[in-house]
Design goal:
808 residues, globular, 23 helices, 29 strands, alpha/beta
Length: 808
C-alpha cells in the first residue's frame, strides 16, 4: 500500500507563508518564497505497485486525501481534452467543413503540447529527476503513457480523414488529390506551377562530411532525398525544405460553373513529384517527407537580463531552433531512413510517429477558410449589443447609473472597443491604465491607446511580453505605444501579468471618477468572437478603488496591502479560495445550504482538490465545469461522491471562469482570469472579482450556470477512471445545449433592437439552487445550414444542433 506524506511545514504554516507581504522592489526569490507542488509532496512507491485508496479509519484525513490514487495525471488529462476535440470531428451531425476544422485543431493542439509539455518532461528524464507528481507517476511513466495515447489519437485522426471525411468531401465536389490521380491536363498545370512558383524558392542542402545536417526550423516540413551519381554507387543524402511562403494545400484552376469541382494537391507531394529537377545528373533512389517539432519554451533569467524586451527577442530567435522533441514521418518510411533521421535529431524510436495521412492536418486549413464552402459550415452568428449600450451611447453616463455585464461572444466585444475609443477622444478623460496579455497586431484597442497618448492623456500599459506564442506581436505594438508617449511597463519580474483590467479616470461634472472594465478574457477583438468570456463594466467606488490599488501595486514599489473585494494572485487568491471552500464545508456540517459551482479551463492545484474532496465528504454538493485539464477524480466512493465534473467542447472555446458559493443562502459569485493551477496562483498576476449587483448576479445564478449544467449535447461527464462519457437526454429530458441557448438569446435581442417582430422560442432554465435537471432548450440552429449538405452526412438519430470550437 502506498502512502503520501506531507513534507515540511503544515498546511496552516504554508498558507501563512503564501499570504506574506510581497514587495515588488525585491528579487522574486525574496518576494514569493512559495514552495512548489513537488517540494510539498513526496510519494514512496514500489515499482509496479498498485495504488489503493486507503480506508478512512486507518489513515489520517490529510494523508487519505493526498493519496496518488485520487489524482489524474495532468498530461493524460490534457490528452483526454484533445480526444474530446477529435470527437467533434467524428460527429456526423456537424457540418462537414466544421469537422475538418476540428481535425486541424487536434493537430495544432498536439504541436503545442509537444513543444511545451513533452519537451519539459523529456528534460526531466534527461536530468534524471526523481520528482513524482501528486498522481504518483514519474516523468518516465508519464512519457510512456503519453506516447501510447498520442499514437492512438493520431491513428484515429488519420483513419477519420481517409475513410470518412475525404469521401464526404468528394460527395460535395471537393477533392484532395494525389499527384498520380491528376489528369494529364491537370498534371501539366501543376508542373508549370511548380516551375514558376515553387522551384525558385527551393534550396537543396547536401548532407555529407563537409556539409553537416542542417538545423531545420520548428514545425518545418522537409524532404529527405537519397541519390547516387551512378547505379551501384555510394548513396548520398540531401534535405529540401518545403517553403512556408506557399500554401501547403494548392487549389487547382476551376471553371466558372458553380458545379465545377474543387481540386487540391499537397505542396509537398508536388515538390516530391518534380524534385529530380533540383538534382540534374543524379539518380534518385528515394524521397521521404518528414516533420520535426522542437522545444519552443522560452528560457529567460529576468533578474540577469538588463533589457527584458531585448532578451525575449533574442530568445524568440533561438526558440525555433530548440532541441527536437518529435519526428513525424510517412507510414511507408523505411526503417533505415527513420533510423538515419533519428540519429540526425538525437531522438529515439519512442519520439517517432508514423502517419498514414498528411504529416499534419493543419495543412487542411485552406478548406476551412474557403468562403465558397459556406453551406458546409455553421450558420453564421453575429454578436448582439447589450440593450444598456445602444449605438452612440454615452458609456460614462450609463455606468454612473448601473453596472453592465457582457457575455462574449454573444454580447459584442465591439462595445468594449468603442468605449476605449470614446475615452481616447473624450477631453474629460485624464488617464487610461490597462493590462495587455494578448491582442492582435492590428488591434483597434492599441490604436485607441496610441490616440489617447497623442492627445496628451496619461496612458499606462502593463504589457506581458511572455504571452506564449504572442511574444513577437506584443513586442511590436509595445514599441508603438512607447513611441506615442505611453508608459509601457513590461510586467513584473518573475510573474506573468495575466489579469484583464482597464481603469479610466475621468473628470465628471460632479467629481473625479474611476471607471473600470474587468474581464475573464483578453483584449483581443478577433478571439473575442470565438472565445466565451465575461466583461464587467462598473463605476462602483469601492471596487474601482481596489482596481486602482492593483495598478499602483504592479507599477510601483509598494507591497500588496490586501483587498476586501478582489482576490489577487500570487498574494491571497489561493488562501481565500480555500477559505471559501472551507466555509461551504462548515455550512454543510452545520446543516445549512452549501454548494460550490466552478467553471474553469483547468483544475490542477492539488491542495484545492484536497479541499474539494474534504467538502464533498462533508456533503457539499460540488459541480465543476472544466473545459480542459482536470486532475480531480469525481464519484470516488467515500471521497468525491458529491462531486460532478463536466466538460463542454463546442463551437466556441469555453474560456470564462465563474465561481459560485452558496454561503448558507447568501450566494457569492466571482468572475476570474485565473484557472485553478499552481502557475495561476503562484507565478501569475491574476484577479478574481465579485459580481455584487443583484440583477447581474441573478443572471449568472439563474441563467448562465444552469445552461452549462443542463447541457445534453456538447457536455461530457468525467468518470472516476479519467475517461469522459458524452451526456445525452434521459427520459423526457430535452436536447439542451448551452452555447446554442446563448446564441438564440443573443439573436432574439438583436431582433428586438432592430424592430423585428419575429419571436424566437424562449428557453426555460432551472436555477442552480434547485435540484431539478429539466431546462427546455431544444432547437437545432444549424438546420438550414445543413440542408444543402445533408447528403454529405450519414443519417443520425439525433436532430439536435451541430456545433464547433477550438484549442486549448
Amino acid at each position: 500500500m502506498i502512502r503520501a506524506t506531507k513534507s515540511g511545514v503544515g498546511p496552516l504554516a504554508r498558507r501563512g507563508e503564501r499570504n506574506a507581504r510581497i514587495t515588488f522592489g525585491l528579487p522574486i526569490q525574496q518576494r514569493t518564497k512559495m514552495p512548489t507542488a513537488a517540494a510539498k509532496t513526496s510519494v514512496v512507491q514500489e515499482p509496479s505497485a498498485r495504488v489503493e485508496l486507503l480506508p478512512k479509519d486507518d489513515v489520517p484525513p490529510e494523508e487519505r486525501l493526498s493519496n496518488p490514487e485520487n489524482f489524474i495525471n495532468r498530461e493524460l488529462s490534457w490528452l483526454e481534452f484533445n480526444r474530446r476535440v477529435l470527437e467533434e470531428a467524428q460527429d456526423p451531425t456537424q457540418p462537414l467543413i466544421e469537422r475538418v476544422k476540428f481535425l486541424t485543431i487536434v493537430s495544432s493542439n498536439l504541436d503545442e503540447f509537444f513543444e511545451i509539455r513533452v519537451a519539459g518532461i523529456k528534460q526531466q528524464i534527461k536530468s534524471e529527476t526523481s520528482d513524482i507528481g501528486p498522481d504518483g507517476l514519474s516523468p518516465t511513466d508519464t512519457f510512456d503513457r503519453i506516447q501510447k495515447t498520442v499514437r492512438e489519437l493520431v491513428a484515429t485522426q488519420c483513419a477519420l480523414w481517409k475513410s470518412e471525411l475525404m469521401p464526404e468531401l468528394a460527395k460535395n465536389g471537393i477533392y484532395v488529390r494525389e499527384m498520380a490521380e491528376l489528369s494529364p491536363k491537370r498534371a501539366a498545370w501543376a508542373h508549370r506551377y511548380f516551375q514558376q512558383e515553387v522551384l525558385p524558392m527551393l534550396t537543396p542542402l547536401a548532407v555529407d562530411a563537409s556539409h553537416p545536417f542542417p538545423h531545420l526550423l520548428n514545425r518545418s516540413h522537409n524532404l529527405l532525398v537519397r541519390a547516387k551519381l551512378q547505379r551501384g554507387g555510394e548513396p548520398m543524402h540531401a534535405i529540401v525544405q518545403v517553403p512556408r511562403a506557399v500554401s501547403r494545400l494548392i487549389a487547382l484552376p476551376r471553371g466558372k460553373s458553380a458545379d465545377e469541382p474543387w481540386e487540391y494537391i499537397y505542396l509537398a507531394s508536388l515538390i516530391k513529384q518534380h524534385i529530380g529537377e533540383l538534382f540534374p545528373g543524379l539518380i534518385l533512389d528515394e524521397v521521404h517527407a518528414f516533420r520535426v517539432t522542437r522545444n519552443s519554451d522560452l528560457y529567460i533569467d529576468e533578474e540577469e537580463a538588463e533589457n527584458l524586451l531585448r532578451s525575449i527577442e533574442q530568445e524568440l530567435r533561438r526558440s525555433s531552433r530548440g532541441k527536437a522533441v518529435r519526428l513525424e514521418v510517412e507510414a511507408d518510411c523505411p526503417k533505415d531512413v527513420l533510423e538515419l533521421l533519428l540519429r540526425f535529431f538525437d531522438l529515439t524510436e519512442a519520439d517517432a510517429y508514423k502517419l498514414d495521412g498528411p504529416l499534419t492536418m493543419t495543412h487542411l486549413m485552406p478548406l476551412v477558410t474557403n468562403d465558397a464552402f459556406a453551406k458546409l459550415k455553421d450558420r453564421p452568428f453575429q454578436p448582439a449589443r447589450d440593450p444598456a449600450l445602444p449605438p452612440h451611447v454615452d458609456f460614462f453616463e450609463v455606468l454612473r447609473r448601473q453596472d453592465v455585464l457582457l457575455h462574449h461572444p454573444y454580447d459584442s466585444f465591439d462595445q468594449i472597443v468603442e468605449w476605449i475609443e470614446a475615452a481616447a477622444r473624450d477631453p474629460q478623460v485624464l488617464a487610461i491604465k490597462i493590462t495587455l496579455y494578448r491582442t492582435s497586431g492590428d488591434s483597434p484597442i492599441v490604436e485607441a491607446l496610441i490616440d489617447a497618448a497623442n492627445a496628451g492623456k496619461q496612458v499606462t500599459a502593463i504589457v506581458e511580453l511572455r504571452a506564449r506564442f504572442d511574444e513577437a506581436s506584443n513586442i511590436q505594438w509595445a514599441r508603438r505605444l512607447e513611441e506615442a508617449g505611453a508608459h509601457v511597463i513590461y510586467g513584473v519580474v518573475g510573474l506573468k501579468t495575466h489579469c484583464k483590467a482597464l481603469l479610466i479616470v475621468r473628470r465628471d461634472a460632479d467629481q473625479l471618477r474611476r471607471y473600470v472594465h474587468l474581464g475573464t478574457g483578453n483584449y483581443h477583438s478577433r478571439t473575442a468572437r470565438i472565445y466565451t468570456d465575461f466583461s464587467l463594466l462598473t463605476s462602483e467606488p469601492k471596487l474601482t478603488e481596489e482596481v486602482a490599488t492593483v495598478f499602483n501595486t504592479l507599477t510601483g514599489l509598494a507591497g500588496y496591502p490586501g483587498l476586501k473585494k478582489i482576490m489577487v494572485a500570487p498574494f491571497d487568491m489561493h488562501s481565500r479560495l480555500i477559505q471559501l471552500i472551507e466555509r461551504e464545508r462548515d455550512h454543510a456540517r452545520a446543516g445549512k445550504p452549501a454548494r460550490i459551482v466552478a467553471k474553469l479551463n483547468a483544475l490542477v492545484d492539488h491542495e484545492i482538490i484536497e479541499k474539494l474532496y474534504e467538502a464533498s465528504c462533508s456533503d457539499v454538493t460540488i459541480d465543476l465545469i472544466v473545459r480542459g485539464i482536470c486532475c480531480l477524480r469525481p464519484k470516488m466512493s467515500g471521497l468525491s461522491d458529491n462531486i460532478r465534473v463536466i466538460s463542454i467542447v463546442g463551437r466556441f472555446l469555453e474560456h470564462s471562469r465563474i465561481l459560485y458559493f452558496e454561503n448558507a443562502g447568501q450566494p457569492k459569485v466571482f468572475l476570474s482570469s485565473a484557472d485553478w493551477m499552481p502557475r495561476n496562483f503562484y507565478r501569475r498576476i491574476e484577479l478574481a472579482f465579485p459580481v455584487e449587483n443583484p440583477a447581474l448576479r441573478d443572471q449568472i445564478i439563474n441563467e448562465v450556470l444552469p445552461s452549462f449544467l443542463h447541457d445534453r449535447v456538447k457536455a461530457r461527464e468525467l468518470q472516476p477512471d479519467g475517461k469522459y462519457r458524452r451526456l445525452k437526454p434521459e427520459g423526457s429530458e430535452p436536447r439542451a445545449q448551452a452555447q446554442w441557448h446563448f446564441r438564440e438569446v443573443s439573436r432574439e435581442r438583436a431582433k428586438k433592437m432592430s424592430g423585428s417582430k419575429k419571436k424566437l422560442r424562449a428557453a426555460k432554465l432551472t436555477p442552480i439552487t434547485v435540484a431539478s435537471d429539466n431546462p427546455v432548450t431544444t432547437n437545432p440552429e444549424t438546420e438550414s445550414a445543413q440542408k444543402s449538405a445533408r447528403s454529405a452526412m450519414p443519417e443520425s438519430a439525433s436532430s439536435g444542433p451541430a456545433n464547433t470550437s477550438k484549442k486549448s
